[in-house]
């Protein structure tokens, strides 16, 4: 069917058609409120999909609107689109084929309730208007927008208030200077919105989120063409989002901590920190271990609460535990446990698919090395043993590993004999004999999965997550070591917990002098991926140059 003219008046969202990428896109899924889109000519219309293809010369005119209605004004080619009859009130009766075309156009919209077709007094040829009335959904019943001119959060919906107290403002004035009565104030919480200190103003039509009140809390508010985002300045967590609808910002979701007074979330890090924040900084450590560190005072002021972490439940879910072995060596490096893990389903950023760990039985300190091939193991162990001898002046007495062939390679056997190191291998098919290494694998991989889930990073970052997992695990206190950490037992000093950061958080890295001109930015927004292995600095992923940056000049 051909159409000479088609105008779409939109106030809410709808699925309508789209065109090829080299033409102007008219997809109502993304068109904002309050816009009329006159489309002078249509190239074609697909009645099966409801897709229409307009010309490039379409204009867009802004108009006021306050209803939840779409009006689709079509000027059809009368030779193909003739009304069968006209009633006394101007309604038009269409034949079944014409009605079928119109219903195909609207079939994509599952929640459309009624279709009214009536005659309009417009210039010839004859025009028709289809009004599509939408029922309000559960989210529409509590419609909120971000408002830069509003001094306080306001809600006309009484059901969401979980606390009530007298309001300091008995009346408020809206944009048209009309006074509105305030019944009370309190904390407001629903599935979508959670706000402190909200005024209940029944006379409002919609809920208002005050941007200035959010700024007083120290929150970061960023805007782009599509909408806005509300972010915690310390953890970089997204607390809320809004979408651009015409010249308004509709709240998609916003969940802020509830308090009786404005809490400045941009306060220095030396103030009280939450369990959740230290839980993330310490690689998703358990609540009991965080309490132990907090009670010792090394974490500063920490709020006392329990951690309920969805990422831990997803990343650390496992089946039956391994059997425990109560034997512990007398001194460091008397016994080293080792095992190889892999292949990984995806290579790391460096192309590695395996890793090997070495665990000191006495201190529980763990070393991890990534490998592209299992054949790299003999040389890695030789380098590791020489490092232990140089740094700690102690030889490795026993190497305990599984029955893998890499541990029986001739060059490794010769080196063990030259060092006087005894090798112990698990029996075939009895991996629990190397249980300490197996359990450490599970601990590391649980943490790796949790870090990836929490930071929403792709699986190719698993290598960096593994390095960070081992780095933080070595700093976790354990009851096996009288509630000391492996790092403290091995080195005799407490680890520097103040240097720990949340894995996967945003950070700013200073660029090298040759990377910018005199007028270009000196820093770059990167992704924190861990701590330096051979450098004293942080490992950060640069999404622009797509490479790993290692620098000490990093701000969080």
UniProtKB/TrEMBL annotation:
Xref: Pfam families: gag_pre-integrs, Pol_BBD, rve, SH3_retrovirus
Keyword tags: Hydrolase, Protease
Top-level division of the source organism's lineage: Eukaryota
TM region positions: none
Domain annotation Integrase catalytic: ranges: 317-494
GO molecular function, one term: peptidase activity
InterPro entries: GAG-pre-integrase_dom, Integrase_cat-core, PolX-like_BBD, Retrotran_Ty1/copia-like, RNaseH-like_sf, RNaseH_sf, SH3_retrovirus
Gene Ontology biological process terms from the UniProt entry: DNA integration; proteolysis
PROSITE patterns in the cross-refs: INTEGRASE
The UniProt record lists the keyword Protease: yes
PANTHER family associated with the record: INTEGRASE CATALYTIC DOMAIN-CONTAINING PROTEIN, TRANSPOSASE, PUTATIVE-RELATED
Protein's recorded name: Integrase catalytic domain-containing protein
Lineage: Eukaryota, Viridiplantae, Streptophyta, Embryophyta, Tracheophyta
